[in-house]
Amino acid sequence: MSNDTASAMDYNAHEQTYEGFINFSKVGTIAVLNIVLCLILFAFGGTAATVFGWLMLIANIIATAVGLALGEKGWVAPAGVFVLSGLLAILTV
């Protein structure tokens, strides 16, 4: 016998969870790509590249935390750090 006392699905909570997952995916992907750039700076650069690599790694951690807190437009801060890391990688490696 079936039980008809189950509550209806909470679509608002479902949509909020989905938006959070999408934001985490975007910010996380950009953060991982930035870590790869920092590893390139560490491996193939000289002293200046190593210093810039550490600075960009710290900036990546901060930008990722800010990006996760901002919500829908949270990918902008990590993307800015990624672009700056890419430019530094081009210039120093």
TrEMBL record:
Keywords: Membrane, Transmembrane, Transmembrane helix
Residues covered by the Cytochrome c oxidase subunit IV bacterial aa3 type domain: 4-42
Transmembrane segments: 20-44, 51-69, 75-92
Top-level taxon in the UniProt lineage: Bacteria
Pfam family, one: COX4_pro_2
Protein name per Swiss-Prot or TrEMBL: Aa3-type cytochrome c oxidase subunit IV
